[in-house]
Amino acid sequence: MIYVPILFLLIALAFAIQEFLPVFDWAYHARILFVHTMFFCAAVTVPFPLMLLLALVTGFVWDARYHVPLGADDELVFGLSILFLGLAGSFIQGVRPLFRRGRWELPVFMIGIAALAVQMAEYLIISFERGGLYFPAEIWFKILMTSLLTTLLAPAILLMLSLIAKKVNYRIRMEGITQKKYQYGDPLQT
Amino acid sequence: MKRFNIIALIAFVAVTGWIFFFRPDYVEAIQRGALSVFGPLIKGSAVASGEGDNGPPLDPTAMAAELEELRTEVTILRLQNQQLDDFQRDNNKLRDQLQYVKTSPLELVPARVLDRDSHTWYSTLEIDKGTSDGVSRDSPVIIPVGEDAGLVGKVVLAGAKKSIILLLTDEKCQVSASVIGSEQRGIVVGEQGAVIGQRGAINVMPFLNLKYLQKNAKLNPGDTVYSSGVGGVFPPNLLLGTIEEMIPGAIDTTAKVRPAVDFSVLENVFIVQGVRG
Question: Chain A contact for B22, CB < 8 A?
């Protein structure tokens, strides 16, 4: 099971890379959520309990680095990222069999939706705390661009994970959206 | 759902719930640790992006153009002159800042901006000074604006050698304010959605709102707004901006304020540690 430590190393590497990724001024300060993409892609390939553990570690480190402490005025409380990643990861888990069968369209699409959902949830919480829904075009553009940029990375990361899984003989288990003919134990298709 | 999955889910919910109820000082300690761990990366990215070293960006196109220009002696001299002017300007700026630190009635710690916009929903800066330099949470951050101290924001997280500043233009940075030559008092907050990085919206020149003025407040465009010192976080007489227009409301009046500080070009800032004497 060397695949699992490799995933944790890749998540750590994603945090390092995230520091160097620029904010795109031309896209209303949209950014690539590289750590999120790495987590979502990893979530496609691991069993449910391991996905939760990844969500716990990734969310915790993300909040330790990026949570803005506002004291009594805290809106996005410390630890919220863990919950969001756990929920989004559970959602993505459903497409594991498709990924294993070499169908990447839906997993990539789901990763984009998950990135969008996490941002929307954060923004809605902030808006709720501040007592007013405020949705100018710029905010939609920023959220959509961030999701799009994040999604564009997904195929490359999925390919990398797929190659690593093959190299270390790791099998992606069949749980989620699948047909009966694809049972647990099928050879990995890439 | 398999039994092991259910156990994992229950454990996940329990641990996440436990983390939600971490005491603020515990969260702060964790974040300080994270800031220390990520410190070299933050500095590395600042150097890579040209922030923090204040040097000219290495643009291959510009360098190629410069190479062409360097072929004639006249252009060389012109460029050298231009460079000397730049140095002189930087030198004057730094000398002014040094002079300001010496003469200011405030105890100041100079800091360099390492990173900006590193948080999705908040207007923040990251600087290269932390608790080891005497920086603490809620310390006001200023820059000299003429003879005055222009308020930039406040420290929300002080790591050992790095800190995070919440900018004045963020909706969550609120400052009690007064208008010079008037009895009016109010609260200055970032204008909703008009700030770089502010809840995602953008404006090249963000404005502030001076809220909760009396309904019949008689203020004029150009009037200067300062911090009043009420609340204890920000000392009095820090320059916030000038009034652009008055917006009457049903029960009170709001003034639109143009900030005194240009937040888009911040390179060096000063953290206020206290008042001298």
Answer: yes
Q: What is the mean pLDDT of residues B66-73?
A: 72
Q: What does the block give as tokens for A31? A: 């950014």
Q: Is B171 exposed, middle or buried (0-12, 13-18, 19+ CB in 10 A)?
A: buried
Average pLDDT along chain B: 83
Query: Nearest residue of B to residue A140 by CA position?
Result: B200
Beta-carbon contacts of A145 under 8 Å, excluding residues fewer than 6 positions away, are A24, A27, A28, A30
pTM: 0.72
B201–chain A Cβ distance below 8 A for any pair = yes
User: Residue holding tokens 């222009």?
Assistant: B150
- CB of A26 within 8 Å of a chain B CB? The answer is no
pLDDT of residue B106: 83
Q: Which of A164-173, B9-18, B192-201, B261-270 has the lowest mean pLDDT?
A: B192-201
Residue B41 has pLDDT above 70, yes or no: yes
Q: Are the beta carbons of A20 and B44 separated by less than 8 Å?
A: yes
d(CA A52, CA A75): 24
**Structure-token pair, residue B272:** 């206020």
